[in-house]
Amino acid sequence: MYRDDFDTANSSQRNGDDVYSKPVKAGKRTYFFDVKATKGNDLYLTITESKRKVEGDGSFSYDKHKIFLYKEDFDKFREGLEEVIAYIAKNAPGQERRPKANSSDFTDVDFEEL
Questions:
Q1: CA quadruple 97, 103, 109, 111: dihedral sign
Q2: Are 46 and 68 in contact (CB under 8 A)?
Q3: DSSP letters of 34-56?
Q4: Which residues of 34-50 are buried (b: 16+ CB within 10 A; e: fewer)?
Q5: Minimal CA–CA distance to 41: which of 9, 4, 72?
Q6: Are 34 and 18 in contact (CB under 8 A)?
Q7: Are 42 and 35 in contact (CB under 8 A)?
Q8: pLDDT digits over 9-53, tens only?
Q9: Could you report the per-residue pLDDT of 56-85, keeping only the tens digit for each?
Q10: How far is CA 37 from CA 5, 11, 73, in A?
């Protein structure tokens, strides 16, 4: 989701405001990649891991962990992440990355025939 008024908003209103957000659901966790703007209009990234847990009374709560990543660190962060992902793919049996299914891998199903 893009923030439509990013370029025209008053910079004091943008302090820490979301500019773009991308949630990624992964099993029991959701990762949020949020681009935010500083007072000086610099953009930075927050990555939040959120995991839903059940309390003793049956209600739900969320464990959240957040990191802040600034643009001067993007290249080193990406390099480190790519290196450890490649290491895991090479050294962890059964942990190979599966190719994404693409729509041509599936056949059309007519539910009225079932």
A1: positive
A2: yes
A3: EEEE-TTS-EEEEEEEEEEEE-T
A4: bbbbeeeeeebbbeeeb
A5: 9
A6: yes
A7: no
A8: 433 343 468 899 999 999 989 999 999 999 898 999 999 999 988
A9: 898 989 999 999 999 999 999 999 999 999
A10: 12, 9, 16
| Strand partners of residue 79 | none
pTM for this prediction = 0.62
Write down the residue that tokens 């464990």 correspond to.
63
Both structure tokens of 69: 């990543």
Residue 43: closest CA among 79, 78, 13, 68: 68
Residues 6+ apart with CB under 8 A from 109: none
Q: Which residues pair with 68 in a beta bridge?
A: 46
HEC letters along 80-98 = HHHHHHHHHHHHCCCCCCC
